[in-house]
């Protein structure tokens, strides 16, 4: 029985075939030649007192639509104004309701580092990320082999992109390599989409100290963030907690105010 992740990856492969017919990798190479590197996601998280990475996400496979009519210009600038250390932008259409155009629009509206959140399986997507304004890309261990992860991380660095490596369990620790900038522990099981913040607590000490580490998914209370800070987490990727409200930027502001 295919898992949700299996379905997403199968869909992503078809999407890539279509994209490559519309814009070649050479076309993307030409487009990025004069693009300067954006602000560092890693440094921004390190320098932040809260480390909140606010996410722009319209839907998810487990919750369906969260904020179907969400508009980039009504949320992204306010994430920046209200204290986000970085902003994650979903660019998967079929399962998350996002597009690369969302990323490109966001890039015009903020200096805050932008993470392209997608299921990256091909170097073509790295060129896309650079062309559309990302500071960093996400590599998901569960979607890749150890070898492919290293290959994509090396390529991303050559393109001037930072790398957030996402792990879900202890078995994925060997995916960590020298090209990674940030290690994220996703509390959501990508096979079942069940969320358990305990995963971050269990894996904390197993991540090498030289890597900045963040916790992702299922975080909704300031108490949880404070407890994770105490064991070394510097960043906290939060999407649904803000996007399920009428005013995500205001929800972020209130969360950070309570956190401080």
The global form is: globular
Beta strand count:
10
Uncertain runs with pLDDT below 50, 5 residues or more?
A: none
Separation of the first and last Cα atoms: 45 Å
Describe the structure using short key phrases:
260 residues; alpha/beta; single chain; 12 helices; two-stranded antiparallel ribbon; 8-stranded parallel β-barrel
Reconstruct the topology from this structure:
Blueprint: H1 4-22, H2 25-32, H3 41-47, E1 52-56, E2 59-60, E3 64-65, H4 72-81, E4 86-90, H5 93-96, H6 100-109, E5 114-117, H7 123-131, E6 136-140, H8 146-158, E7 162-167, E8 182-186, H9 198-203, E9 212-216, H10 222-230, E10 235-238, H11 240-243, H12 248-259
Parallel strand pairs: 1-4, 1-10, 4-5, 5-6, 6-7, 7-8, 8-9, 9-10
Antiparallel strand pairs: 2-3
Overview of this structure, please?
α7 (123-131) links the parallel β5 (114-117) and β6. It is globular, with a radius of gyration of 17 Å. The model has no long low-confidence stretch (mean pLDDT 96). Helices cover 43% and strands 17% of the residues. The protein has helices at residues 4-22, 25-32, 41-47, 72-81, 93-96, 100-109, 123-131, 146-158, 198-203, 222-230, 240-243, 248-259, and strands at residues 52-56, 59-60, 64-65, 86-90, 114-117, 136-140, 162-167, 182-186, 212-216, 235-238. An eight-stranded parallel beta barrel has the order 1-4-5-6-7-8-9-10, surrounded by six helices. The protein is built from twelve helices and ten strands. α4 (72-81) crosses α6. The protein is an alpha/beta fold.
């Amino acid at each position: 029985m295919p898992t949700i992740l299996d379905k997403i990856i199968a869909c992503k492969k078809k999407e890539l075939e279509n994209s490559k017919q519309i814009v070649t990798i050479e076309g993307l190479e030409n487009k990025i030649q004069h693009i300067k590197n954006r602000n560092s996601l890693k440094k921004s998280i390190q320098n932040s007192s809260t480390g909140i990475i606010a996410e722009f996400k319209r839907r998810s496979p487990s919750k369906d639509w969260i904020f179907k009519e969400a508009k980039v210009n009504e949320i992204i600038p306010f994430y920046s104004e209200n204290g986000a250390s970085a902003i994650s932008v979903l660019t998967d259409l079929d399962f998350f309701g996002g597009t690369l155009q969302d990323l490109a629009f966001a890039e015009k509206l903020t200096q805050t580092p932008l993470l392209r959140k997608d299921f990256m399986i091909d170097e073509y997507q790295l060129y896309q990320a650079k062309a559309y304004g990302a500071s960093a890309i996400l590599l998901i261990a569960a979607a890749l082999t150890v070898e492919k992860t290293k290959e994509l991380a090396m390529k991303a660095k050559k393109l001037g992109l930072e790398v957030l490596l996402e792990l879900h369990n202890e078995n994925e620790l060997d995916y960590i390599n020298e090209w990674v900038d940030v290690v994220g522990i996703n509390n959501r099981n990508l096979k079942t989409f069940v969320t358990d913040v305990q995963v971050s607590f269990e894996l904390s000490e197993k991540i090498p100290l030289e890597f900045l580490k963040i916790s992702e998914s299922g975080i909704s209370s300031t108490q949880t963030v404070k407890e994770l800070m105490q064991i070394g987490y510097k960043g906290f990727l939060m999407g649904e907690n803000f996007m399920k409200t009428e005013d995500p930027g205001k929800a972020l502001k209130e969360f950070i105010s309570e956190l401080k």
